[in-house]
Write a structure and sequence with these properties.
Layout: E1 2-6, H1 14-25, E2 30-34
Parallel strand pairs: 1-2
Length: 53
């Protein structure tokens, strides 16, 4: 899983956010910063991008 965070500023401690993500969801995940306004506003909070093979 990858958590995308919109932010103008760099993420101070992505490892701490990843630890919180794992504690809350019981899933390991990466944390990536993306430019503010770059995520689609389609109402999807979670998007499953796994291949359907």
């Amino acid at each position: 899983m990858t958590l995308l965070i919109e932010s103008r500023e760099p993420i101070a401690d992505p490892a701490a956010i990843a630890e919180s993500l794992q504690a809350l969801t019981r899933l390991r995940g990466a944390v990536d910063r993306v430019a503010s306004g770059s995520l689609p506003e389609d109402g999807k909070l979670i998007e499953d991008r796994r291949p359907l093979d």
